[in-house]
Amino acid sequence: MDVSRLWAPVTRWGDFRRRQLAALEESNRIAAQAVDDDGSPAPAGDPGPGPAPTLGPGPATGEGAGSVPVAPYGIVGQPLNRHSPFYIGFYGATGAILAVGLWQLAGRITTTLTVLVVAFFLTLALNPIVDWLVARGVRRSGAVGSVFLGLIVVFVVLGFLVIPPVVDQGGQLAQQAPSYVQDVLNSRWVRELDKNYDVIDKVQAELTQRMSDQQFLEGVLGGILGAGRAVVTGVFQVLTVLVLTLYFMAALPRVKQSLYAMVPSTRRARVVSLSEEIMRRVGSYAIGQVSIATFNAIMSYIMMSLLGIEYAAVLAVSVGFLGLVPMVGATLGAVLVCLVAFFDEPQKAVIAAVYYLVYQQIENYLIAPRIMQRTVSVPGPVTIVAALTGGALLGMLGALLAIPVAAGLLLLYEEVLVPRQRRV
Fold this sequence. Notes:
two-stranded antiparallel ribbon
């Protein structure tokens, strides 16, 4: 072999690489040829020049069956057996480790994913209002700003309705707590228990011991700090949802176009039509449910004000939030109002129960059908199952989002799966 060619001057890297590979292949061919020490040809029976030697069993059919070819660079060996227990165990363990890591990662970002989902559904709920303003000549930036300002006003009004009464009533409770404790201690049944079992002295001794216990004090202090931290975290999450909602509303058309561009052109029109219909129905459902819950809260506030039930503003806001939960939310709000009214005056609780019984019939047969007529019609069993499943997975948030998700899945079932099965 003329190895001087390998060191010849080269002007291009590609030429050098091709010459290098050619020289290496020629060297491997010569190394595979068996020769004697004196340079004479190999004796009979030894492999001579020709095809590269092979070892071991190979494929059952085809050229070279029953052998494994030598690798291009003289490396000979068996192929990797993918049925080997070591191979299967290694890749199975790798997959399990990857799955556990992804699950832990998802657990750590659950709060972030929840905030994103809430902001997205809030965007879908507010987007029909934005589109309505845009259709009447308002620029999208102005429409988004107006809708977002209205949303901020709603949150501020709710805050003024809820926070001052809660703070005021909490302060009153703290001031009257000693008198409440004294009334309990002076009650007849407590005196009887103290006379027979010396309860008061035992309770005082237990309280004294607890107040001198460092671990108990740290636990109480930690609970108070934890509650304060939860309040601060909740406020931060609400602000984050509002900011994300603003960005989502402003960029929603561009986001949709970017996502649609990823779909093959042959199916893009179908995907666009289904996606737009799902988003329209989800937004309409959200607006309708909020409207029904708001009307229920306003009427409940009027009823409680006329009856003189305490904490009317706080209870009305609670009824409105519970009314967002499908199927059972309005009933839970009615039960809450009746319980508070019962401790105030039983006659008021009876009147409130009668009011809610009549109002539920009016809402179910007159108000809800008119407001929800443009949204998807979800069967009752599907609604119950979706609400229970969503509540089990994500609590109240899951129950709120279950019906829109079920509506989207039902639309895909009716428009995609059923027609495809008919064509098969």
